[in-house]
Request: fold
Amino acid sequence: MNRRSIALAILAALLIALPAFAGNYALSVATLILYFAYTGQAWNVMMGFAGQLSLGHALYVGVGAYAAGALFYHLGIGPWAGLWLAIALCVALGLVIGFLAFRFSISGVYFALLTIAFAEFTRIGFDHLDFTGGPGGMFLRVAQRDAWDLANFRGPPLMYYYAMLALTIGAFALCASLLKSRAGYYWQAIRENEEAAQALGINSFRWKMLAVAISSAMTAVSGVFFAFYYNNLFPEQIFHISRSIEIILGPVIGGVGTLFGPILGAGVLTLLSEGITESLAALGWEIPGIKQVFYGVVLFAVVIFLPHGIWPPLAKRLKL
Amino acid sequence: MALGLSVIFGVVRVVNFAHGEMMTIAMYAATVLFAALHLDPFLAMVPVAAAFFVFGYLLQAAVINPFITRPEHSQFMLLVAIAIILVNSMLMIFGPDAHNVQVDYQLESYEIGPLLVDKARLMAAGAAVVAASGLFAFFRYSLTGKAIRACADNYLGAKVVGLNVKHLYALTFGLGAVCVAIAGCAMVVLVDVTPPLGPAYTLLAFVIVIVGGLGSMGGALLGGVLIGVSEALAGLFIEPSAKSMFSFGLLILVLLLRPQGLLGRRT
Reply:
């Protein structure tokens, strides 16, 4: 085994063993980190691998969450069935957006704005959809929290932690194999120079569509998780552009296009934000907004001084 | 306001994701000047715009210029970070409550035939027209304006003929900031200002600019009028809260069918 896989195995073992010595608070922070790591990984398939900048990934989180949530709320159908509906809906949506964008050859900033437009459009649409509670939100029944009810995905924080850990590991493995597959090489070719890739006979339209489909399907899963973890859904919250930004912060800070970047970035950012909250509370500074200012300053510094994210220079230093 | 965004994108090719946040700052500045000196917001435009020009110039010169050649998501993150810092500094300083100014002409209105027009709105529109025509004249006739347009047309070419591109970019960003300042001071007479207003206005500015055509000044004005009218009509005929849905719908259509915008040139 090389250094890289040893490090990976140690990290995975640590994460699996974490609940043994972590309280509920630490566990919820860890779940949040994994959630962002997973969603960031999904976004990374589109941007990091295929080079399509999406700023509307909250759309897939939201639609996935609402699809599974509504099924559970109205018909009592559990998330295992809802998952497929969520994936199907999100992939369909992603393909529609991708089809429109790539057929009309929209790229770069314009593609990003298009994804924002679709997310905002859907947000306002859900605000007026009574079936899902409109702006008042949709609330899933909260069952007792000690028993593991896997069929309905209800249980103690520990269950959610392991579910998210499994998802993150799965996503990592999937992305690692994708990157080594034919599709992965095609994507990188398209990302680096689309015209050259086309000249070599790569059907860039088809491969970009594949990237969108995989990315939206993965994000849909995180939406289902979101619905059953938080149990309440508001269009204003879940579709908001700040959600999309949250999703992409992790991979951008960690390193776009790398496998570890999303995980590292999610860890750094979540710990940073929790750390700021804690230390400000300890200092007794209760000024609204001060936390975000610190957060913004750190973000600013990372973007300026580490243009490729934290992971690439770190990997070099650690010789991974 | 959209004019400022369009100017910045058209020349510098960086999408200013902190645009709405900058406008909220202008609005706060106007409220502060009003509270402290009883300065009418329309007069406050002058100092606020001057301060914004300096701020915009320095921001571009010190922070954004090195990012010109970096990939889009990197630029985007930079401006998001700036936006987060700006909007939350406002929250820290002014708190979450709404601030406003009270001037005596806010309730006055003119009757033009069957129409009733607020005096404040009319003055805001007037300020927008004056600023837009000033900007237009600057870009069309002044030597510096021509130089800036040259940079926008051909970055390398402009460098070759010896233009100081970085300085001109910074100048452009400063001018965009001036537009924002003017818009902010005019807006504060019409609506109360709260920190979350920033992101909402950033999005609105995007819709307007894209519909009109990124980088086209006439397009920004046309887009503004078009979005204003279509939102008003949608609010009237359907549901007021669903009106922005039409703006975004319109945005999607324009992006697909005419990505360069209604008045934009194809690049």
